[in-house]
User: Fold this.
Amino acid sequence: MSKVLIIGGGAAGMMAGVFAARNGHEVHILEKNEKLGKKLFITGKGRCNITNAADIETLLNAVITNPKFLYSGFYSFTNDQVIDFFEELGVKTKIERGDRVFPSSDHSSDVISAFSRELRRLHASVHLNTEVLKVLIDDHKVVGVELKDGTKIKGDSCIVATGGVSYASTGSTGDGYRFAKEAGHSVTALRPSLVPMETKEPYVQELQGLSLRNVNITISNAKKIVYKDFGEMLFTHYGVSGPLIISASSRIGDLLTKENLTLSIDLKPALSFEQLDARVLRDFNENINKQFKNAIDKLFPAKLKPVLLELSRIDPDKKVNEISREERERFVHLIKNFRLTLTGLRSFKEAIVTKGGINVKEIDPGTMESRLVENLYFIGEVLDLDALTGGFNLQIAWSTAYLAGNSIK
Assistant:
């Protein structure tokens, strides 16, 4: 039996603690917050999207950075095994749209409570309000950690599960990257991912709070289309957010650091241009003596109306029977191709995950052990791994934690 020091009591840290303890090791979780699972508590809008029920290949395809590194992890501790793990701990689950898996109760607190109970049952020690200053290494081997107050704790191995730098208020302040660099590891460039985006046009402020369902988005640069998707999005005072935009950020964030991109929204994707033109013409015929501004109420939400009226370049007071075919077709094109200029990503404060992290070439993918320092392990978001929304990032946490917890010597 060895003494295992786990830095960070979030999703990955708690899972690693459970498996290390189940293997008979003396486990100490060192958490700088006043409670375990602070970031886990707010994931999935407080509902905790614990994994995704799709097949493993779909899971791997949802990983944006270094998916091959996760082959061993995803096949060693699958999404089905994750569901079974929580069910055995008394957390009933359900599957929703997009194969997202949630606790049946819709409470992330149930997941954290289940971990706490299991860690207690296994006699793992949880040290709250305990901040680690550095990992102590001697002759390329872990010998313990030093706390912020100067206390040194001896240990046979150390698992770093400190998270990234997103949602810093939950304690994710980048400590793990410092520990890694001090141990000789390289850390790739960090930037926010799964994050809202800012736009150039001032009229988005008029649309603040408007949610659009069942729309198509296309994102392009001067040369080509770089992203397409269908779903739900939201306008904010600074630009755009919502599931479509959040997912897009993980794919096009690198590009957006180099150039502005064009976001095109098809507000009526179920209708072709010709079908929509016929629909608009029908609405015009039903309101033939009305002004243009009073003849389009059925087409889209009220908040969109003033903006689309302005962008249509048609006099809002013009009678619909005076609108030319060219003007009408231009209006239809606007509905099918409502454009905004994407200028950048929002900050780490609003990011769900961190893109970038500890270089995975320096980590054994079968054990999560450092290739540079013996008995030093890195798991979860601190690694250069990130995925789309939908439970995939938590699956990364669980699978990497499982491997580390079961690989302690």
